[in-house]
Amino acid sequence: MSTDPRITQTFMGLLTDHQEIIRSYIIAQLPGCSEVRDILQDVNIVLWEKMDHFEPGTNFGAWACTVAFYKILDYRKQQKKNGFLVFSEELAGTLKSEYEPREPDDLEAKRNALNYCLQKLSDKEKALLKARYDSPAGDMERVSKETGRSRASLRVSLSRLRVGLKNCISKRLAAEGGAA
Description:
Elements: H1 5-17, H2 19-29, H3 36-49, H4 60-81, H5 89-98, H6 104-119, H7 123-133, H8 140-147, H9 151-176
Helix pairs in contact: 2-3, 2-4, 3-4, 6-9
Protein backbone atom coordinates (compact mmCIF):
# COMPACT_ATOMS: atom_id res chain seq x y z
CA MET A 1 0.00 0.00 0.00
CA SER A 2 1.22 3.46 -0.88
CA THR A 3 2.76 5.54 1.86
CA ASP A 4 2.83 8.75 -0.19
CA PRO A 5 0.11 10.94 1.37
CA ARG A 6 -0.59 12.72 -1.95
CA ILE A 7 -1.28 9.44 -3.74
CA THR A 8 -3.44 8.23 -0.87
CA GLN A 9 -5.37 11.52 -0.83
CA THR A 10 -5.90 11.42 -4.61
CA PHE A 11 -7.03 7.81 -4.42
CA MET A 12 -9.45 8.56 -1.58
CA GLY A 13 -10.92 11.42 -3.62
CA LEU A 14 -11.47 9.14 -6.60
CA LEU A 15 -12.93 6.39 -4.43
CA THR A 16 -15.31 8.82 -2.72
CA ASP A 17 -16.36 10.47 -6.01
CA HIS A 18 -17.13 7.08 -7.57
CA GLN A 19 -19.18 5.50 -4.77
CA GLU A 20 -22.50 6.21 -6.48
CA ILE A 21 -21.18 4.87 -9.79
CA ILE A 22 -19.98 1.63 -8.21
CA ARG A 23 -23.21 1.24 -6.29
CA SER A 24 -25.25 1.86 -9.46
CA TYR A 25 -23.20 -0.74 -11.27
CA ILE A 26 -23.84 -3.32 -8.54
CA ILE A 27 -27.57 -2.55 -8.56
CA ALA A 28 -27.65 -2.85 -12.36
CA GLN A 29 -26.03 -6.28 -12.14
CA LEU A 30 -28.05 -7.47 -9.13
CA PRO A 31 -31.47 -5.80 -9.34
CA GLY A 32 -33.49 -6.22 -6.17
CA CYS A 33 -30.51 -7.54 -4.21
CA SER A 34 -30.68 -6.67 -0.53
CA GLU A 35 -26.92 -7.06 -0.08
CA VAL A 36 -25.76 -4.21 -2.33
CA ARG A 37 -24.30 -2.30 0.63
CA ASP A 38 -22.24 -5.34 1.74
CA ILE A 39 -20.96 -5.97 -1.78
CA LEU A 40 -20.05 -2.28 -2.15
CA GLN A 41 -18.10 -2.45 1.08
CA ASP A 42 -16.27 -5.57 -0.14
CA VAL A 43 -15.42 -3.75 -3.38
CA ASN A 44 -14.11 -0.74 -1.42
CA ILE A 45 -11.87 -3.01 0.65
CA VAL A 46 -10.40 -4.63 -2.47
CA LEU A 47 -9.91 -1.24 -4.13
CA TRP A 48 -8.14 0.06 -1.05
CA GLU A 49 -5.93 -3.04 -0.88
CA LYS A 50 -5.08 -2.70 -4.59
CA MET A 51 -4.54 1.06 -4.49
CA ASP A 52 -0.97 0.64 -5.73
CA HIS A 53 -2.23 -1.19 -8.84
CA PHE A 54 -4.28 1.80 -10.00
CA GLU A 55 -2.54 3.94 -12.61
CA PRO A 56 -3.36 7.64 -12.18
CA GLY A 57 -4.78 9.13 -15.35
CA THR A 58 -6.66 5.96 -16.30
CA ASN A 59 -10.41 5.44 -15.91
CA PHE A 60 -10.98 4.87 -12.19
CA GLY A 61 -14.69 4.14 -12.70
CA ALA A 62 -14.00 1.37 -15.20
CA TRP A 63 -11.35 -0.15 -12.94
CA ALA A 64 -13.61 0.01 -9.90
CA CYS A 65 -16.53 -1.54 -11.81
CA THR A 66 -14.25 -4.35 -12.98
CA VAL A 67 -13.41 -5.09 -9.35
CA ALA A 68 -17.13 -4.93 -8.57
CA PHE A 69 -17.84 -7.36 -11.42
CA TYR A 70 -15.61 -9.98 -9.81
CA LYS A 71 -17.18 -9.40 -6.39
CA ILE A 72 -20.60 -9.83 -8.01
CA LEU A 73 -19.44 -13.11 -9.56
CA ASP A 74 -18.29 -14.25 -6.10
CA TYR A 75 -21.69 -13.30 -4.69
CA ARG A 76 -23.52 -15.18 -7.44
CA LYS A 77 -21.38 -18.28 -6.88
CA GLN A 78 -22.23 -18.15 -3.18
CA GLN A 79 -25.93 -17.74 -3.98
CA LYS A 80 -25.78 -20.69 -6.37
CA LYS A 81 -24.15 -22.84 -3.64
CA ASN A 82 -27.03 -21.88 -1.37
CA GLY A 83 -29.53 -23.14 -3.94
CA PHE A 84 -30.61 -19.82 -5.48
CA LEU A 85 -31.15 -19.42 -9.22
CA VAL A 86 -28.51 -17.03 -10.60
CA PHE A 87 -27.32 -15.73 -13.98
CA SER A 88 -24.68 -17.75 -15.78
CA GLU A 89 -21.19 -16.24 -15.94
CA GLU A 90 -21.67 -15.80 -19.71
CA LEU A 91 -24.80 -13.70 -19.21
CA ALA A 92 -23.12 -11.79 -16.40
CA GLY A 93 -20.26 -10.97 -18.78
CA THR A 94 -22.73 -9.76 -21.41
CA LEU A 95 -24.46 -7.54 -18.85
CA LYS A 96 -21.10 -6.15 -17.76
CA SER A 97 -20.20 -5.20 -21.31
CA GLU A 98 -23.54 -3.39 -21.70
CA TYR A 99 -22.97 -1.22 -18.61
CA GLU A 100 -21.12 2.02 -19.16
CA PRO A 101 -20.01 3.72 -15.94
CA ARG A 102 -20.73 7.42 -15.81
CA GLU A 103 -18.51 10.08 -14.39
CA PRO A 104 -19.54 11.77 -11.10
CA ASP A 105 -20.14 15.11 -12.87
CA ASP A 106 -22.58 13.44 -15.31
CA LEU A 107 -24.55 11.99 -12.42
CA GLU A 108 -24.63 15.35 -10.64
CA ALA A 109 -25.89 17.08 -13.80
CA LYS A 110 -28.63 14.47 -14.16
CA ARG A 111 -29.58 14.80 -10.50
CA ASN A 112 -29.81 18.58 -10.84
CA ALA A 113 -31.92 18.24 -14.00
CA LEU A 114 -34.22 15.76 -12.23
CA ASN A 115 -34.69 18.16 -9.31
CA TYR A 116 -35.48 20.98 -11.75
CA CYS A 117 -38.04 18.81 -13.57
CA LEU A 118 -39.63 17.57 -10.34
CA GLN A 119 -40.21 21.18 -9.30
CA LYS A 120 -42.21 21.74 -12.50
CA LEU A 121 -44.72 19.00 -11.60
CA SER A 122 -48.09 19.80 -10.10
CA ASP A 123 -48.72 19.02 -6.44
CA LYS A 124 -50.99 16.16 -7.51
CA GLU A 125 -48.26 14.64 -9.71
CA LYS A 126 -45.67 15.01 -6.94
CA ALA A 127 -48.04 13.34 -4.48
CA LEU A 128 -48.58 10.42 -6.86
CA LEU A 129 -44.82 9.91 -7.31
CA LYS A 130 -44.26 10.19 -3.58
CA ALA A 131 -47.01 7.67 -2.82
CA ARG A 132 -45.57 5.24 -5.35
CA TYR A 133 -41.87 5.52 -4.55
CA ASP A 134 -42.21 5.82 -0.78
CA SER A 135 -43.99 2.44 -0.87
CA PRO A 136 -42.46 -1.01 -1.23
CA ALA A 137 -42.25 -2.07 -4.89
CA GLY A 138 -45.26 -4.37 -4.76
CA ASP A 139 -47.56 -2.08 -2.76
CA MET A 140 -49.54 -0.57 -5.64
CA GLU A 141 -52.72 -1.89 -4.05
CA ARG A 142 -52.27 0.47 -1.09
CA VAL A 143 -51.52 3.41 -3.39
CA SER A 144 -54.62 2.48 -5.41
CA LYS A 145 -56.79 2.54 -2.29
CA GLU A 146 -55.26 5.80 -1.03
CA THR A 147 -55.82 7.59 -4.33
CA GLY A 148 -59.14 5.96 -5.21
CA ARG A 149 -57.79 4.96 -8.62
CA SER A 150 -57.43 1.58 -10.28
CA ARG A 151 -53.99 0.01 -10.49
CA ALA A 152 -54.16 0.18 -14.29
CA SER A 153 -54.94 3.90 -14.15
CA LEU A 154 -52.02 4.43 -11.76
CA ARG A 155 -49.64 2.52 -14.02
CA VAL A 156 -50.63 4.68 -17.00
CA SER A 157 -50.28 7.92 -15.01
CA LEU A 158 -46.93 6.87 -13.58
CA SER A 159 -45.69 5.83 -17.00
CA ARG A 160 -46.66 9.22 -18.43
CA LEU A 161 -44.94 10.99 -15.54
CA ARG A 162 -41.75 8.97 -16.05
CA VAL A 163 -41.71 9.70 -19.80
CA GLY A 164 -42.36 13.37 -19.12
CA LEU A 165 -39.55 13.52 -16.57
CA LYS A 166 -37.18 11.70 -18.92
CA ASN A 167 -37.96 14.18 -21.73
CA CYS A 168 -37.62 17.14 -19.39
CA ILE A 169 -34.26 15.87 -18.11
CA SER A 170 -32.98 15.33 -21.67
CA LYS A 171 -34.03 18.84 -22.68
CA ARG A 172 -32.52 20.37 -19.55
CA LEU A 173 -29.21 18.57 -20.06
CA ALA A 174 -29.12 19.55 -23.74
CA ALA A 175 -29.82 23.17 -22.81
CA GLU A 176 -26.95 23.08 -20.30
CA GLY A 177 -24.63 21.27 -22.70
CA GLY A 178 -24.53 18.15 -20.52
CA ALA A 179 -24.82 14.47 -21.37
CA ALA A 180 -28.28 13.11 -22.04
